[in-house]
Structure formats: C-alpha cells, structure tokens
Predict the structure of sn-glycerol-3-phosphate transport system permease protein UgpE.
Amino acid sequence: MIENRPWLTFASHATLLVGIGLVALPVWMALVASTHPASAFGAGHIPLWFGDAGGQTWGNVLFEKAGNGVDTPVFWMMLNSLIMALGITFGKIAISLLSAYAIVFFRFPFRNLCFWIIFMTLMLPVEVRIVPTYEVIANLGLLNSYTGLTLPLIASATATFLFRQCFLSMPGELVEAARIDGAGPWRFFFDILLPLSRTNIAALFVILFIYGWNQYLWPLLITTDDAYYTLVMSIKRMLSVTDGDIAWNQIMATTLLAMLPPVAVVIGMQKLFVKGLVDSEK
C-alpha cells in the first residue's frame, strides 16, 4: 500500500510549478518585448506587459525584413531552415538505415571494421572537419545553395549505431521466415524491418530535425546570399549592429518564430518519440 504523504505531493507540485515558471518566463518576456517599439528598450528597462506595436512588428518581421543587418523576411528564412532541416533529417535516416541494414544482415569481409570506422567518426568534432568540408563544397561550387547546406550533414554515425542495435535485437527467425517465403533483401527491408523500426525512426526524426533546424556554424560559413540565410543565423546578424540601436522587438519576434517548428514537431510526435526511446515494437 502506497502511503499518502501530502507534504511530498505539495513539494513535488511546487517544484514542477517553479520549473514551468523558469521555462515560461523567458518566453513571456520575449513575447511581451515583441509588442513594444524598439525605442522602449533604450532606457535599459524591460516591459512586463504587452504594448500596442505587436501587429506592426510581427508584420514587418514576417513579410518585409527581419531586422537590422538582415533584409530577408522571416517566412523566407523559415523556408530555408525547413528545407535544410528536412534534408538533413531524411538524409541521415535513409543513409543510417541502409548502412545498419548492410552491417547487420549481410556477410562481407571487414563488416565489423567498417562499423567501427563509422563509429570512430563520433570522436571528430565538427570544428575539426569543417574547414576541409568547406573547401570541398567550395570546389564543387555548392556555396549559397540548398545542396551545400544539407549534403555535408546527412551522414550520422549515431543514427547508424542506434539502428544497428535495433536490428541486432530482432530475432533471427524473421530472416529465416522471410527467406522461406521468398522475400529478397529489398522486400525484407521494406516489408519487415521498416515497420518494426517505426518508433525508432520517429524518435530519431525528432532529434535530427531539431539538430538540423538549430544549425548555426555551417550555414554561417557557406551562405553570403540573403536568399539562403537560415533563421538561427539571422538572429546573430541582427544582433551585430555597428550603427544604431539593436531592434530588440524584431529580434524577440524572430526568436519566437524560430521556436515554433521544433516545438510543433515535438508535440506532434510526442507519443512516438517517447515510445521510441523507452519501448520497442518487436
């Protein structure tokens, strides 16, 4: 029998409320700041309630220009970020699924060595390989392009490792049954492995989408054309103002818009995401 402890219940709920408040306070302040004119922040104070300039600020940010230093509207940069995030996500999942499938279910020389070589790339930080990667992309003429934004980031040793572990946990009888039924490698992959890996794919989709959406360093290096700016890097450019005041209202509006797609993905795929992390469909 579970003992009822009112003080413990109160303490746990109070802790949760404090945590929610700490998370919600910056979002609230950003939302309030986006409704005030830029001049309201010149005196060094932060308003705590809504102003009357929200409609104009959000309209300018979305459809005219994001702010000082960025002449591209936010909706266009959101599209660029979405293309990059989805390209990275689908590319990583597709390549990792196929590589893990080959390593687990095919017998070829040095297959374990191939896996460990892939796994060892996790020890190479992005900063170590970003200069040679930039040189390759520049020599291929892929600067200021969607291909240049996504192609160098579509391989994932982490996803390959996770799919390999998922495939290793599947019973060997599946392979034998598929072989008896006359299923070839591709039919086994599409009709058996993919459905059984659905929750794992969903969990990785959420993680990789957020990873792709939040990319900052790589887009900053290869994009000089405003038409290919991503939303995250534009916020930094809006802060780098050499003359004039920083338009905090526009920056806060842009920041809130940058939060929406990752939050929507997490909420929309919450059940599959949690199930993919703590459970498996076998």
In short: The chain has one domain: 74-278. The CA atoms of residues 151 and 179 lie 36 Å apart. The chain has 14 helices and no strands.
